Structure formats: structure tokens, C-alpha cells
Amino acid sequence: MNKKQLFEQIQKKKSFLCVGLDPVLDKLPKHLLKYNDPILEFNKQLIDATQDLCVAYKPNTAFYESRGVKGWETLVKTWQHFPKDVFTIADAKRGDIGNTSAMYAEAFFNEESSEMSFDSITVAPYMGEDSISPFLAYPNKWVILLALTSNNGSKDFQVQQIGDQKLYEKVIKTSSQWANSDQLMYVVGATKAHEFQHIRQLAPDNFILVPGVGAQGGSLADVCAYGLNTQCGLLVNAARSIIYASNGLDFADKAREEALRMQQEMEQILIAAKLV
Amino acid sequence: MNKKQLFEQIQKKKSFLCVGLDPVLDKLPKHLLKYNDPILEFNKQLIDATQDLCVAYKPNTAFYESRGVKGWETLVKTWQHFPKDVFTIADAKRGDIGNTSAMYAEAFFNEESSEMSFDSITVAPYMGEDSISPFLAYPNKWVILLALTSNNGSKDFQVQQIGDQKLYEKVIKTSSQWANSDQLMYVVGATKAHEFQHIRQLAPDNFILVPGVGAQGGSLADVCAYGLNTQCGLLVNAARSIIYASNGLDFADKAREEALRMQQEMEQILIAAKLV
Fold first, then answer.
1. Which residues contact A76 (CB under 8 A, 6 or more apart)?
2. pLDDT attached to residue A242
3. Would you state the pLDDT for residue B63?
4. H-assigned helices in B82-181
5. Contact A216/A192 with Cβ under 8 angstroms?
6. Which of A5, A95, B28, B152 has the most CB atoms within 10 Å of its CB?
7. pLDDT (tens digit, 9 = 90+) per residue, A157-181?
8. Are B122 and A93 in contact (CB under 8 A)?
9. CA–CA separation, A203 vs A172, rounded Å?
10. Spatial distance between the Cα atoms of A136 and A184, rounded to a whole number of angstroms
11. Residues 94 through 113 of chain A touching chain B, CB cutoff 8 Å
12. What CATH number should be reported for the domain holding residue B203?
């Protein structure tokens, strides 16, 4: 999906919600345990219940890898269940030397190789340009580069001062020479809302993927106050607050209620910003 | 495997060789294509041919993930074929917020969850302490943290100056407060041999995993001149130069020859350093 199509989806659905599919078997509604693949059933029902309210789905690969081969099967089948009109994010935080990143690109972008072809992948910047460029070789596929993350550990290196800028600022500036906003997004945690104004100066046109709203404590209004741009420019992720809205028979209905609540809040924000 | 056991293996085998198992189907000897899982057969024959000459195996997960579910199956079965007395490295370059890194730890350290339990995993430092600590909760399991990598992209961020130190130096210093040398190693590329003296001052007791000897152009002698410590302290990886030493029927014999050549060079170095 290209940038124009993504913005069209945002306008059509009046939403810039991304639903994080990070399922843990122990937290699933008990009635799903009778299924051959309870996590797949959980994901399918969540997707069916929310797909008109969100523009993106983001499975975090760790939650599938933790279950070995059967987890990877669940990830493939979950990908196959995604509707064609949603933007899909492999939240994999990969990154290696060039020839190895090329293999990761096959894993997540090349359906012939791996039976999956996500629209985008999250990538860690530490290894630099050649760890990122192999992903950019796929037309209309995206790298979502870690910039300023929502966790405590973000203070260890990301905000360290390099000359007159912080490391995450250097990451944004340097990487903007490798790709433009048609293929490059950044991850900025919602818990860092006070940094959004400044980040928008560095990356005025890029989409920003924002985790950390909801369970992690970030505020949607704060993020949007400075994060919106002329094509929305934000994908706001919520995972636990939606997928675990209930652990009963009504889990999908409650997930929809929470997704609807967020979509309606986003619609008001988009209207106020004259983007719909 | 703990540090004492690793050094014992090094002394017993007179080797600090790590064999990188990064197989690509197109490069395999043609006679293997008749097997149900050619890559698994390739790996098994390589392991059988080299296990007395090396102390570690390092499959890079990208090369397995690129083939989807069947690739992940190959990785599991390759892990199951490793002898008990070798140190195993999941070269996965993972790292995420704490609750997600805990899932990655299950994927690579918890055999009950994932059918694999490597001794160690490579981790990218960008997200800081809580991305690393879940791996350290497993006794006798190791984090191998990216410090200064062998690729061109290492110049983009790793060597940027933060105050009076470079980013990779900051990574070493900061992370040394999170774990000691019984659970923490660093990745330093062989192409950075001139930096080893300095790195040994920062991390005198830690093992260093050194990729980039062989196909990537690094020199073993240069690395050892400054990299050795009182417990050897080095695991030197070679992948392509060993696994693709021949692409004929004799591939395993030729792989053994190249591994033996490296082991013999290492034996001389260990003798000269009075470590065996």
C-alpha cells in the first residue's frame, strides 16, 4: 500500500487506528481453547470485529515466535486473514548486515518465499544504512524505523547527546537521506508526546507509528496536538486495551466497542484538523 | 553453558571457532536437493564434519525465516542436531520493550515453548536495559550485545561521538552495569581489529563474538593480537568460507578442511598465549 492509498483509507474510515495483535495463550478467553489454533481464532474474530474501524494491523512477531513452529504458522495464517484494504505491519524490529537484511526482507515482504507479504516492517537503526536498504528495494513496501520508543530503556541510548542533537534525532536526520516519506516511517512512543512538535520539524512528511496509547499510559490528544500533518501522518497503535477488553464470550464485541471509542475520538480530531 | 565450561571446551578443542550456519538454497550442493529438507541435510552434514574443530554454532535466523514455516522447522531441527558440548548462538538481533523481549526469550531459550533452547542470542542495544534484562533472567543463558559491527553501516551511528566516547563504547560501558561477563558478550566485527585494544580496556573479561573473518575480509591474527584475554575471550565466526568451501559432493570434507585450517591457526595462537 502506498502513501496516497493509506491516506485514502484514513479518510474513508475516519480513523488512524492500528490494532496490535500481540496474543498470549494464557490471556485468551477460555472458550477459544477448544479450537485447533486458539490464537488464530482469537485474531480472526478480532480482525472481523474491528476491520472497518482501523486502518492497520500490527502483529508483534515475538508473540508468535515464542510458540515455535506452530506460532509461525499462526502468524502466516493471521496475515492471510487480513483484509486487502488494511495496512499491515510486521512488528519484528529486525536489522542486520545487508545480505542478512535481504533475507529478512524475503521473510516479511516476499510471499513466494515465506507465504507472507506485509506492507511494512519495524527495523532497529543501530547497524546503519545497509541494514535498512534491502527492505527499500521492494516497491510500495515500508521501513518503520525505531526512533524514540515508549519504554524506560529509551533513555539509555536514544536520548544521548551527539553534538547538538540526540541520537534519535540523528537517526531521523540521517535515515531521511536513505528514503523519503513514501517508504519510511518512524516509531515514536506515545509516552513521548512532548517531543512530537520537535520530531515533526525533523520529519514533516513521514508517517509516525505511535505505540503506547492505552495500557502504556500515553494520551491520544497529546500526540495529535503536535503529531498530525497534512496527510494525517499518524498511525496510533493500541493492543492490550482492545484485544483484552474482555476475556469472556463477548471479547470480540468488547474489542469492537473499544476500537469504536478510539475511532470516534480520532474522527473528531480529523474533523477539527480539516483532514476529513 | 557457563563461562567456565566454555573455556574448558576451548582448551579441549584448542579452538575458538564458531561456524555460522547461514544457508541459502540456491548455493547448496545440487545433490542435496533430493532430500525432503535440503538445508537441514546440509546443516547436519556440516555439523557432523566440524563439531570436533569448533566450540560454537551460530545460525542466523534470517536465513531460516526467509523460508517461512518450513524454514523455522529447519531451524528447530538444526538446533536439535547440535551436540551437547557446543555453545549455541541464535543470531537473531532481537530487542524490544520488556514484555516483548520476554517473549523473544521464550522463543530462543525456553524449549517447552518453542522446542529450542540456545545458549545465547544476539541483541540490538537501541531500546536499552529493559529490552535486554528478560534474557538475563535465564540462568546460564547469554546476551550477545551488538557493539561495533563489521558492516559499512556501522559508521552511521555506532561510532558517533557522545561526549568523550563513541556510541558503541557507551553501549559497552552502560550494559556492563546490567550484567557481568558471565552472561554478557559483545559483537565486534573482525574488520575493526584496530579497535580491539581499546575495547579490551572497556570489557576486559567479556567474551567477544567476532564475525567478519574470511569472506568479509577481517584478519584472525589482527583480532587476536589485542582481543585475547586470560580465558581466551574470543569466539571467531566464519560462515561462507566454511559452509561454501565446495558446492560439490565433497562439500562437508572441504568444510572440514577449512575448519581444520582455522582450528590449527587458533591452536598456535592459544599456545603462544599460554592458554593451552
1. A114, A115, A116, B68, B69
2. 96
3. 98
4. 98-109, 111-114, 133-136, 154-157, 167-175
5. no
6. A95
7. 999 999 999 999 999 999 999 999 9
8. no
9. 7
10. 8
11. 94-98, 100-101, 103-104, 106-107, 110, 113
12. 3.20.20.70
Domain extent, residue B149, equals 3-272
pLDDT of residue A240: 93
CB B109 within 8 A of CB B89: no
Best interface-test mutation with A: which of B25, B39, B67, B93 has the largest number of A CBs within 10 A?
B93
User: How far does chain B reach from its first CA to its final CA, in angstroms?
Assistant: 20
User: Among A137-151, A197-211, B108-122, B215-229, whose mean pLDDT is lowest?
Assistant: B215-229
Let me know if B93 is a catalytic residue: yes
Neighboring chain A residues of B24 at a CB cutoff of 8 Å: 103
Give the cell for residue B46: 556440516
B183-229 pLDDT, tens digit per residue, is 999 999 988 778 898 999 999 999 999 998 876 677 899 899 999 99
* Model confidence at A218: pLDDT above 90: no
Place of cell 483484509: A83
What is the predicted pLDDT for the residue at B195? 87
Residue among A44, A77, A93, A254 flagged as catalytic: A93
**Contacts of residue B26, Cβ cutoff 8 Å, sequence gap at least 6:** none
B77 touches chain A (CB under 8 A): no
Complex ipTM more than 0.90, yes or no:
yes
What is the torsion angle, in degrees rounded to the nearest 10, for the CA atoms of residue A29, residue A17, residue B125 and residue B119? 30
**Chain A CB within 8 Å of residue B136 CB:** no
pLDDT (average), residues B217-244: 93
Query: Quick check: B116 contacting A, CB < 8 Å?
Result: yes
- Helix ranges restricted to H, B190-250: 196-202, 220-227, 240-243
Quick check: A135 contacting B, CB < 8 Å? no
- A268–chain B nearest CA distance, Å: 31
Residues of chain A in contact with residue B156, where contact means CB-CB under 8 angstroms, are: 125, 128-129, 174
Percent of chain B with pLDDT over 70: 99
pLDDT tens digits, residue range A69-88? 999 999 999 999 999 999 99
Question: B177 and chain A: CB distance < 8 Å anywhere?
Answer: no
Residue A219: per-residue pLDDT: 85
CB spacing of A128 vs B69 below 8 angstroms: no
A156·B129 Cβ contact <8 A: yes
Q: Answer whether B162 touches A (CB < 8 Å).
A: yes
Of the candidates B44, B77, B93, B254, the residue annotated as catalytic is B93
Q: What is the pLDDT of residue A215?
A: 67
| AA letter at A37 | D
Q: Which three cell numbers stand for residue A188?
A: 515514536
Confidence of residue B107 (pLDDT cuts 50, 70, 90): very high
Q: State the DSSP string of A4-31.
A: HHHHHHHHHHT--EEEEE---GGGS-GG
Domain count, chain A: 1
Whether A126 and B124 lie within 8 Å, measured CB to CB: yes
